[in-house]
Structures are given as structure tokens and as C-alpha cells.
């Protein structure tokens, strides 16, 4: 997990909320894969289909604001999103990301830093995003040890399971 | 060095001797609330842990409220999953069968489970509501709930605190909803991410418990983790009616450190709305007056309490809802419903042409009992107006106080309640 993460940028704006990510009407669906098909449907109806072309989310301020619905992280997990980079995260959303084992990276960026489809390589260990397409580098503040440990363990439930077994 | 309320309570629930903002700590949880999320994700996650117990079945509060009674087959199945789980793990406070109770954030305090000094978490972002009772309460996701179920503990980042000093008193027609919408609009929906908001001053004391709950409910709309009121006589009187359990009132230390101090004179607050589609999209009522509405909704965990129904009834009494507007009123709990019945408020609403529903989240999440069609406009006493939140993605929601909602329903357009109060 702390080794390099390689993927393609998908750009979103500010204040993307949990209702945008998983619209309320999907919440009673029992099959997460069904639910995942509706991910971000009000913003980009083709998002779920074209996911291979953008599996690292780049977002603006306050990403994941709103509800505690963890589905808003889980659908990304199901779709194979490797990391989310945002200018800032909503509190519960950030917890849910880390708990489910998806790195949430907080860093400032602008239109020149990333374009849709850019090939990125992220090193959590070094706190570095390498934009291969643009040949540019962006440093970010590394996650505290406490959180990287959860990511390394593959999410907090895996960590807990290990602890319960010991 | 002194501690803020959040720091004091977190320290109290940790094994540490001292803490400071930014630190990651493990805390013991006093009480946890879960609703439909139990059947949504929690049960599947929990089963993965391979344990056949929960840490303390007496500290778990389980209620169904979002889709009640079940409006669709999928909601009904979700409820079944929830009930099975609650039975399997022998929850003591299991309200999976009583569909009449009401919305979690109203019922839990009414039953005396939200007391000063506690650390409470819930599978819902508006768990912050309980901060009105001088405790720490915040929302968590399904995986966090599983961790608490298994261990009774959870990790926290100690938040920085904001001190909000309130003075003065509201003028007629202005409510705590106008205050919290103003605050969110001023600091923006990202203005308090991860922060603990403490509400101080004489102004805070003038707010009823109902009004404080509205404020604490919506702090999460500014990104905050907690929204805490200081204790006073009003709180103790309220608690005396609901619980015999002991509790410890928490005040901040004199030398406590705040990242920001904001001051509000309540007499300067005027009726406002949050325009579509963001709770921070603040506008004075004068800027939106006259916008025609298709629906008006009074209810939800943000409002739908006695104070809200009383002011609405005062405005509505003897009048009729505009013929082209639908008014939906949902009391936040059965207790409130009964009280409103006894006071004759429900009759006033029905006579005016309102549809009064059983206590549930209902229209708030576009679930049932008043879902919006394409391009419809709704004025709502709720707390979120995200795109598609209450129905069709092209529908639009204006957030406002119960007084504004009630008067707008009569006029068929957004209207200033001060005209009639
Ligand atoms: S009333 Fe609305 S905001 Fe409150 S708990 Fe229910 S769905 Fe959430």
C-alpha cells in the first residue's frame, strides 16, 4: 500500500457531497455493485463505465461533505479507485476512506497541476505525487503514522481482526 | 493551560494524562446509535470479524426511522436485516419493531440517553444534535460502528475548538434555524471541518432546548465534528423529566484555547434561507421573497419539534395552504406528535390543508411521503438541500425556519414570516 500507486486522474470540483456520490435512491439497494453503477450519476452519468480511464480522483475543497453513509466510499472501492486527492476532505468521509483502506491525500492544486486522464504515480511514503504525463512533481504532507498503519493493514476491520485473533 | 469542553470530555474517555489538538487518541464510547445503516453495511462488515458478541448490548440504541413504515420492498428487506442483527446480538434498546417512535436524533434524547459529559457516536452525520445536551456526539460510518460494536472504543483526532459567543435575543419571527444558517453561510460549508464548536454567552441561554438541538444538528453542515452548548438551568430541568441517571456538567477551563472566536448578537439575525443546492448558500429573505413554491415541508431532525410546530400553528391557524402548494408536516417523534395533538396543533394543520405524516425522515432524503418531481421547488425546514436530495435531480430546495416555511406555504411563494408575527 505504501509503495507506489499508479493510475489516471479524474477531476472533480469543490463540495462534492455524499448525495452526489451515492444518490439517496440507491441507498436501499442491497447489492453494492448495483449501487456502484450509479456513482456520481448526477454529475457524470458515464463515470462508473469509464472508470479505468480515471481511477485516481482529484477533487477540490470539502470532498465528501454530508452524510455518514459509508457507501460513498465503498462504491469507489468496488469500482477500483486507488486514491483520492483533495484540497480538503469532510471529516466523516476522511475517516471512512482510511477505515476502508483507501488513501486520502490532502494537497493544494490548480488547473495546471492535473488534467483529466493524466498518468499519476503516488508515493505515500515519500509524500510525493509524480505526474508522468506532465513530468511534474507535487509534494504533500504525509499521513500520520497512526493512519498509515490502518492503510497498511488493509483497512481498520482487517487490523481489528488481526488484533482480535492475537 | 486549560481545556475546552471537547478536550475535557475526550481526555476523560481516554487513558491519557493530557491531550492536545491534532493528536490521535483512542477513546471509550459511552453510547452508540444505529439506524437503517445497520442493515445497509454494518451487518455485513461485522460478520467479517467472526465474533459472536457485541461489547455491550446495553449501550447500543437501535431504531428504524429513515424509511418507516417501509415504502418499498428493498427498504422492507433492509429492515429485516436490521432486526435480525439486533436480535442476534441481543441489543437491549431495540426499537426495530416500534415504527411509531420517530427520528433517531429526537427519540434518543427524549429517552434520556443523551446526558452531559458523555461521548456518543451514531451511524448518522446529524448525531451532532446531542451536543445541545452538553456532551460530545458525532457521526461515524458503518466500519467505525463495527469497531465500536466489537471493542467499545474508537480513534479520534482531538479537534481544535471555535468559541461562538452569542448575545442578545431573537426578534419576533426569527428562529435558531436562521442563526445556524447565517453562521454556516458566514463561515461556509468548509469553515469548520474537523472543529468543535462551543456555543457560549447569554444569547445561547435564551435558546430553548428545541432551538439548541437545531443549532447542534446543523453544525455538521459547516463541517464541524461537535456542536456543544454549555449547561444551564434549562438543560437540567429538561433532563430531570427524562432521566434519573447521574451526569457531570462540563464547562471549559478559564484558560482554554480557541482557534477562533466568533460573536453574534441574536437581535441582529433576520430571517434567511439557504438557496439550492448547498446549505451554505445564504440569502436574506428579502432576496428570495416571491419565488413560487410547489411544496413546503416542515419536519426532520433539524426541526419538527414543539417550538417549531407551535410557531407554524400560530401562523397557519384559521388560514388555508395556497391551492397550488403542498404542505407536509412531520413531527420529529411520537411524543411530539401526541403533544401537538393535545394542544390542537394537528387539527389546525389538517384544517388548513396540510398532510400530516407519521414521524419518519421521509421526504428529507427523497425517501417517501413527499418526493419532489422534476423542476419542483420546495421550501423546507430541513438541513440539506443538495442536488436531488429530496427527489428529482432538477428539483430545488430552499432551507428555512419553520416560521418561514409555514408562512410561505400559505402564500404559495417564499414569504417573510415577520409580516404576520
Ligand atoms: S431527518 Fe433527514 S437529516 Fe435527519 S436523520 Fe433523518 S434523513 Fe438524516
Summarize the structure.
The complex is a heterodimer of chains A (166) and B (421). Chain A has 166 residues and is of the alpha/beta class. Chain A contains six helices and seven strands, in the order βααβαβαββββαα.
How much helical structure, as a percent, in the residues of chain B? 25-40%
Largest interface: A-B, 41 and 49 residues
| Average pLDDT reading of chain A | 93
Percent range of helical residues of chain A: 25-40%
User: Which class of the largest domain in chain B in CATH terms?
Assistant: Alpha Beta
Termini separation of chain A: 23 Å
Which stretches of chain A are poorly predicted, pLDDT < 50 over at least 5 residues? none
Radius of gyration of chain A: 15 Å
Q: Helix tally of chain B?
A: 14
* Biggest sheet features of chain B: 5 strands, parallel
What strand line-up does the widest sheet of chain A have? 4-3-2-1-5-6-7
**Architecture (CATH level 2) name of chain A:** Alpha-Beta Barrel
Explain what you see.
The complex is a heterodimer of chains A (166) and B (421). With 166 residues, chain A is of the alpha/beta class. Chain A has one domain (5-165): Aconitase, domain 4, CATH 3.20.19.10. In chain A, 27% of the residues lie in helices and 19% in strands. Chain A has helices spanning 18-21, 32-36, 71-79, 91-99, 145-152, 156-165, and strands at 4-11, 56-59, 83-86, 104-106, 119-123, 128-131, 136-139. The model of chain A has no long low-confidence stretch (mean pLDDT 93). Chain B has two domains: 5-265, Aconitase, domain 3 (2-Layer Sandwich), CATH 3.30.499; 272-419, Aconitase, domain 3 (2-Layer Sandwich). Chain B has helices at 5-12, 37-48, 73-88, 104-110, 142-151, 176-187, 202-206, 209-218, 233-242, 285-288, 306-316, 334-342, 345-352, 402-411, and strands at 24-28, 31-34, 60-63, 93-95, 119-122, 136-139, 153-157, 161-167, 196-200, 226-229, 260-265, 272-274, 282-284, 295-298, 326-329, 355-356, 377-380, 396-399. A five-stranded parallel sheet of chain B has the order 4-3-2-5-6. In chain B, helix 3 (73-88) links the parallel strand 3 and strand 4. Classes of the chains: A alpha/beta (166), B alpha/beta (421). The A-B interface holds A 15, 17, 19-20, 23-25, 27-30, 42, 61-62, 65-71, 73-74, 88-92, 95-96, 99-100, 144, 146-147, 155-157, 160-161, 164 and B 24, 37, 40-41, 45, 48-51, 67, 72, 74-75, 77-78, 81, 122-125, 127, 139-144, 146-147, 150-151, 155, 189-190, 193-194, 223-225, 278, 365-367, 384, 386-389, 393. Iron/sulfur cluster (SF4) binds at residues 66, 103, 105, 124, 126, 300-301, 361, 364-365, 383 of chain B.
